[in-house]
Amino acid sequence: MATTADIKIGMCIELDGKTFQIVDFQHVKPGKGPAFVRTKLKNLENGRVLENTFSAGSKIEPVRVERRPYQFTYEDDLGMHFMHTETFEEINIDKNLINNYDLMVDGQIVEVMFHTEKETVLSAELPPIVDMEVTYTEPGIKGDTASTNSLKPATVNTGATVRVPLFINTGDKIRVDTRTREYYERIK
After folding, report:
1. Is 83 exposed, middle or buried (0-12, 13-18, 19+ CB in 10 A)?
2. pLDDT digits 0-9 by tens, 28-49
3. Residues 108-143: tens digit of each pLDDT
4. 141-152 burial, b for 16+ CB within 10 Å, e for fewer?
5. The domain 2-62 is classified under which CATH number: 2.30.30.30, 1.20.1250.20, 1.20.1740.10, 3.90.800.10?
6. Domain extents for the chain?
C-alpha cells in the first residue's frame, strides 16, 4: 500500500476496480484547509483521461505493470496481432488499446504494458518517432513556401493522414511523432 506522497508520473494505480496511469499530478497546500493532491488519470481500459483529487496522505493501491517488446504481425477481425520478440508468443490486442494505431507498419516493434498479477494487456505504445513514406499529397505551389506554418494533408503508407509542410512531395520519406501525429522531419 502506498500513499499520495509516493505518486509519480507514469505510475499505475487501481481505483474503483479499474486500472489508471497517472498522467500529471500537483501537490496543493492551500492557505486554509488541509493539503491535497490533484491528479490527471488515464483509464487504461478505454483511454479516457479524468481528474481526481486525493487528500494528502491518503492510501492508494499501486498496480505492478510490466512492459514487454512485441512485433506487429498483421490485423484481422479479432484485432491487431503481435508476436513477442524473444519467446515468439502471439497475442491479439484491440485497436482501442493502441494510441494512433493507424501509424503502425508491419514489423513495427511496440511496448505492450501488462498487468502482472492478472496477466492482461493494459495498453500498447508505439515508438515516439516512426519512419513513413508519403503515398499521396497535393504538390506544393511555388511561392507558398515563404510562410513557416503552412501545412497540407498527406497520406502515408499505412493509410493514415498527417499534416506536412508544403515542400513534401509524393514518394518522400518522413518521420512522424506518434504521440502528436505531427510531422517531425524529412529523411534524406
Report:
1. middle
2. 999 889 999 999 998 887 778 8
3. 999 998 888 888 888 888 999 999 999 999 887 666
4. eeeeeeeeeeeb
5. 2.30.30.30
6. 2-62, 65-125, 129-187
The pTM of this model reads 0.75
Overall average pLDDT of the 92-101 stretch: 85
Sequence length of the chain is 188
Q: What would the DSSP string read from start to end of the chain?
A: -EEGGG--TT-EEEETTEEEEEEEEEEE--SSS--EEEEEEEETTT--EEEEEEETT-EEEE--EEEEEEEEEEEETTEEEEEETTT--EEEE-GGGBTTGGGPPTT-EEEEEEETTTTEEEEEE--SEEEEEEEEEPPPPTTGGGSTT-EEEEEETTS-EEEEETT--TT-EEEEETTTTEEEEEE-
φ, ψ of residue 84 to 5 degrees: the values are: -65, 135
Judge whether 94 and 138 are in contact, CB under 8 Å.
no
Q: What one-letter code names the amino acid at 49?
A: V
Residue (of 127, 132, 45, 50) closest to 93 by Cα position: 45
